[in-house]
Every structure is written in structure tokens, then in C-alpha cells.
Write a structure and sequence with these properties.
This protein is mainly alpha-helical. It contains 16 helices and ten strands. It folds into two domains: 341 residues, Serine Threonine Protein Phosphatase 5, Tetratricopeptide repeat; 94 residues, no CATH class. Helix content is 39%, strand content 6%. It has a two-stranded antiparallel sheet with strand order 1-3. The protein has a two-stranded antiparallel ribbon with strand order 2-8. Strands 4-7 form a two-stranded antiparallel ribbon. A hairpin with a 2-residue loop joins strand 5 and strand 6. The N terminus is likely disordered. Pfam families: SusD-like_3, SusD_RagB. Keywords: Cell outer membrane, Membrane, Signal. It is found in: Cell outer membrane.
């Protein structure tokens, strides 16, 4: 943990030397804690550095792998030596680069946030309170990501299951144990509430703001099954007037828009064009134009989305068509799209384009953390779990479906669930349709204590589980062995 000191602008004290005066000496490129704490500009610079932690590939790419790859919306067509394959196949190891890099980057970022939080008094001016609030939000956000990766869902014995170690100060000598899932969520909740209270300056969606904290609280409360609060905070975001659902005619181009210019985006991890990693980017596995193109939309997802071919969300799938000599698509009635597709290892290439072509640049993408559509779906799920609120749940679902271009018989009614057994089943499938590949699917299944059928995503040469139970030990990552060695108070997740 002491290596954190080398990352940030920290005080380096020179010891008193024999025969010297009483001055303290600093290397010319170092600043004292007091200098930093008294300079709004320096505190702002540290904050920008904390935001930068989120877009480090060690953080953002592994975040995507941990949250999305365990789902059933995409199939990885080949075996890979990349440790993300171990996340995809639920075969976790203690020295996985995914978990190790993510753990380290998250706690680096948390340490940086704590430096600013400690430097700004609660009675500071509006500008500094905004800065403090942003850092409290970032601290909460990274703890939330960590507990999703290393802790079990809140719906499963949160009082006894272990979450992650809480870091609320810059004492690098402290070796805290893992808090319980309940304690970790309570810490995140308190941070988000305080962040929302402190922030009063409107900011674009690539920075934290009061509304961003509200949105994260809505998601947190949904996970905690505090449905009234989930609805309350989702409504705060919706009624803020700051965001609007992208028009149906624009929706298919959602992820090509710059997030700060997209009226629906609540919070995104901004990557600049100069930070585009090409084949090392998040989108590389999902698309073959500029990337490796090894991960395709799964058959079960396609079966769901292509029930309504006019659904605008089909545009987030980019089939790799084969053309004849005249440049025409070749008919193939066996394909979901009705035309012949390129194949890889026998699988049709249904590329996914949510992580490429931002601003027209191949493989450039600023991952969307939250958008307004999720707030409606949070309300839908919370209503579905509240007695007597089934009609309200369906109303929220239909708002999302209408925006996707669906109408008439394509919408739901409490008297016509179109084959679904419950309203909750309707909501969860709508979440799957709307939020595919954005890091929600596996968590949505397991926090609702449902099994995940992965029989359609098994690639060649892989013998991972075909049905993952919500009680399985494999739904959480193992604590990195390097961190266990550094902190003997940490307890490993069970493996059997």
C-alpha cells in the first residue's frame, strides 16, 4: 500500500541534518500538503487526476470485463490467453490481471480522492464544496465498482458476506479488513448522499454533479431492494430537467455521440481521441473494423431483440454481411437478418457497436455509466416489486419501448404480458434489451436470485458452467494474492 505515495503530489520531508538550520527541504518537483490544501487550482488538478484513473485501461477495460463478460448477451468465439477469458468463463484465479489491476487502480483513485476530501473543510466556499463533493462521489463510485466485483449481491446475506475494505482516509499504514457487504453499501450510500448535498454547480456528464449522485443512489437502492427510495431518487434525476431521452430517430446513433453533448447521458467515463487504444480498447473484442472482432451478440439476445425487427435497438448489432459481385446482400433465411453473414469458427458475426465510432473514430468510446433510460427502468423494477404498482411498472417499460420505435401490439398491458408470467419478468427482459453490453446483465440476474443460462455463449474449447446459480462462489472474483500478502487482515472469497 505504501507505493500509493509515489503516485500523487505528496509531501516529502527531508530529515534534520546534523549541523544544518531548521528549514524543511523539498525536492524541486514536490509540494507540501499545506501548499496543496491551500491551492484550489492544485486541488482541482488532483481531482482531474482522479477522474483520469477511471479511464486508465487497467480500470475501465477490466471494469467492463468484470461487469459484462459474465453475462449472456455476448459470445466469445475463441479461447484466449487474456485473463478476461477467465472472467468470462467463471474460472477465477488469485493472480488474475483483471482483478489485480482493477483492485490497484481503484484504490489508487480512492487515495487520490481522499487527499482532496481531507484538504477541504465542510464550511468552504461553493467552488471548493463542489470539488469536495465530486471527490466524495468518485470515492463512492470506485467502492461501488469494487464491491460489485468482489462482494456478493446485497440480496444475499449482506450482514455476513464480505464486501471490500473501506478506505476513507490517506493513512497508508492502516491495514483495514474487508467490511461486510451491508457496511460497504452503507458507506457508499452515505458518501453519495453527502456528495449530492455538497455539489451545487451544473456540470457536463463527464463530471460528477448532484444529479449524477442521485442516479447512483437510485441504482444503489434498487440493489439494496429499498424500492421506495429507488423510485424517489430516479424521480429526482428524471424531474431535474437536465436530461431527456434521445429521440427515436437519433437513438441508433447514441454511442457515436460525444457523451458531454448527449442529452440522455448522466455520467460517462470520458476517453479522448488521443487515448484511443485501438485493438487494446474496450470495443476491440466487439467489432472487427479496427478491432479483433471475437465477441458477437449471443443467440438468446438476438432471439429477444429480433422479435421486433423495427426495434431501433437492433441498430446496436452490426451484422457482417457477405455481398455478391454487384454489391448486394445474399439472401439466407437461416439468419436472423435474412442475409448471409461472415462466420468465424462456425459462428455468424453479429458485431456489437456500442463501443466504437464515437465521433466517427474507430474503437473510440467513452463508456456510458448511467443514462436516463436506466432511471425509468429502475422505477419499473421497483414498481414491479411493490404490491399494487404493476400498472406503473408497465408504464415505465412502455416509455422505453415507445422510444425504441415500438407501438400498438408491441407494447405491454397488465392484462396482456405476451407470454411472460410476471411483470418483473417483463421488466428484466426490457432491461436486457435496453442496457445490453453496458455492464448490467449478470448483476441483474444474480441480485434477483435467478440462475443464468450460458449454454448459448460457450465457445469452442471451453468447459465453463452452462448454468450459473446465484449462490455459486464463482459469481465473485477472488481477492488478488498480492493484496493478501500486503494486508494480512484481508480474507479470501471462498472457492468451493
Amino acid at each position: 500500500m505504501k507505493k500509493y505515495i509515489n503516485i500523487f503530489l505528496l509531501t516529502v520531508f527531508m530529515g534534520y541534518l546534523s549541523g544544518c538550520d531548521d528549514l524543511e527541504y523539498f525536492p524541486i518537483d514536490q509540494l507540501s500538503d499545506q501548499q496543496v490544501s491551500e491551492s484550489p487550482e492544485l486541488l482541482s488538478n488532483i481531482t482531474i487526476g482522479t477522474y483520469s484513473r477511471l479511464r486508465e485501461m487497467r480500470y475501465v477495460r477490466n471494469r467492463q470485463a468484470a461487469q459484462e463478460f459474465p453475462g449472456d448477451d455476448a459470445v466469445w468465439v475463441k479461447n484466449s490467453g487474456d485473463n478476461r477469458m477467465l472472467t468470462y468463463s467463471y474460472q477465477h484465479i488469485v493472480n488474475s490481471s483483471v482483478s489485480t489491476q482493477f483492485w490497484q487502480e481503484a484504490y489508487y483513485g480512492i487515495f487520490s480522492a481522499n487527499k482532496v476530501i481531507e484538504a477541504i473543510d465542510d464550511n468552504a466556499d461553493e467552488e471548493n464544496l463542489q470539488l469536495k463533493g465530486e471527490n466524495i462521489f468518485l470515492r463512492a463510485f470506485m467502492h461501488f465498482d469494487l464491491v460489485r466485483m468482489f462482494g456478493r449481491p446485497y440480496s444475499q446475506n449482506p450482514e455476513t458476506n464480505l464486501g471490500v475494505m473501506i478506505r476513507d482516509n490517506t493513512d497508508v499504514s492502516a491495514l483495514p479488513p474487508r467490511s461486510t457487504v451491508k457496511e460497504t453499501y452503507a458507506f457508499i450510500e452515505n458518501d453519495l448522499l453527502k456528495a449530492a448535498d455538497l455539489m451545487s454547480i451544473s456540470k457536463p456528464s463527464i463530471f460528477a454533479s448532484k444529479e449524477v449522485a442521485w442516479g447512483m443512489l437510485a441504482r444503489l437502492y434498487l440493489y439494496m431492494e429499498q424500492n421506495e427510495k429507488a423510485i424517489e431518487y430516479a424521480d429526482k434525476v428524471i424531474n431535474s430537467g437536465k436530461y431527456s431521452l434521445l429521440e427515436t430517430s437519433q437513438f441508433g446513433s447514441y454511442f457515436t455521440l460525444l457523451p458531454e453533448n448527449n442529452p440522455e447521458t448522466i455520467f460517462a467515463i470520458k476517453l479522448l481521441e488521443t487515448e484511443n487504444m485501438g485493438k487494446g480498447s474496450i470495443g476491440s473484442l466487439y467489432h472487427g473494423q479496427g478491432g479483433w472482432g471475437e465477441m458477437f451478440a449471443s443467440k438468446t439476445y438476438r432471439d429477444l431483440i429480433y422479435q421486433n425487427p423495427n426495434d431501433e435497438r437492433v441498430k446496436f448489432i452490426d451484422p457482417d454481411y457477405i455481398y455478391d459481385e454487384e454489391g448486394n446482400k445474399i439472401p439466407d433465411p437461416t439468419e436472423d437478418v435474412g442475409f448471409l453473414l461472415q462466420k468465424r469458427d462456425g459462428l455468424s458475426q453479429y458485431f456489437i457497436n456500442k463501443y466504437t465510432m464515437e465521433g466517427g473514430v474507430q474503437m473510440l468510446s467513452s463508456p456510458i455509466v448511467m443514462r436516463l433510460a436506466e432511471m425509468y427502468l429502475i422505477k419499473a423494477e421497483a414498481y414491479a416489486k411493490t404490491s399494487g404498482k404493476e400498472t406503473e411498472a408497465i408504464e415505465m417499460v412502455n416509455i422505453i419501448r415507445e422510444r425504441a420505435g415500438l407501438s400498438g401490439e408491441q407494447l405491454f398491458d397488465t392484462n396482456d404480458l405476451k407470454g411472460y408470467e410476471t411483470v418483473l419478468d417483463v421488466v428484466l427482459d426490457e432491461r436486457r434489451l435496453e442496457l445490453a453490453w453496458e455492464g448490467h446483465r449478470a448483476m441483474d440476474v444474480f441480485r434477483n436470485n435467478r440462475p443464468l443460462d450460458r449454454s448459448s455463449v460457450q465457445p469452442f474449447g471451453w468447459s465453463g458452467p452452462l448454468l450459473v446459480q446465484p449462490t455459486s462462489n464463482s459469481i465473485v472474483h477472488l481477492i488478488p494474492e498480492t493484496e493478501l500478502a500486503l494486508n494480512p487482515n484481508l480474507i479470501q472469497n471462498p472457492t468451493e
